[in-house]
Write a structure and sequence with these properties.
alpha+beta, Lipocalin, 174 residues, 19% helix
């Protein structure tokens, strides 16, 4: 009887390993429509931004079984890349920016603009932020100008003062 229990337990463990992804899909949070996330998924691919220091590359990749979009910003000159992860939160869109300033601001977009071409993310909170006066990204607007052009407006907050930088990006052709 003891050998039978071990075999049954082994078979159960093996079935979970082999069929784990289908099991996870059955017990995970059901997906709901999310206009902001659908808009962001259209950015998948490589984009470039030309600046005074050279070309910055921005790569969008769908990750985590299609439940998140990862943005990797690679700066010229070999500086470490920054990563932002966008994901649905019910019918809203959340993002966490893993910043080179050694903090991780989270922002939320309630819904796309009425024209369906821009997303405005507002500050929610920030991990690893010693004080609210410490410099951190505090806002982001992403505007899809057309299928091959997008504009990002990043707002930096430090000592109670905001500064916004605008970046124009073009989709890299294969």
């Amino acid at each position: 009887m003891k050998a039978l229990r071990i075999t049954s337990l082994s078979l159960l463990f093996l079935s979970v390993l082999l069929g784990g992804s289908s099991l996870a899909a059955e017990v995970g949070t059901p997906t709901r429509p999310n206009a902001g996330f659908d808009l962001m998924k259209g950015l998948t691919g490589t984009w470039e931004m030309k600046g005074k220091d050279g070309v910055t590359t921005i790569r969008y990749e769908i990750v985590s079984e299609g439940t998140a979009l990862m943005e990797t910003i690679s700066h010229p000159g070999g500086k470490a890349a920054m990563v932002t992860v966008y994901h649905p939160d019910g019918d809203q869109l959340m993002m966490t920016h893993f910043c080179g300033a050694n903090n991780q601001p989270r922002m939320r977009c309630a819904k796309p603009a009425a024209d369906g071409k821009s997303l405005t993310f507002e500050f929610v909170d920030c991990s690893n932020l010693p004080t609210p006066e410490t410099g951190h990204m505090h806002g982001l607007v992403i505007r899809l100008d057309d299928a091959d052009h997008l504009t990002q407006e990043w707002t930096w907050m430090e000592k109670g003062k905001a500064a916004t930088d605008t970046f124009h990006c073009e989709r890299k052709k294969s």
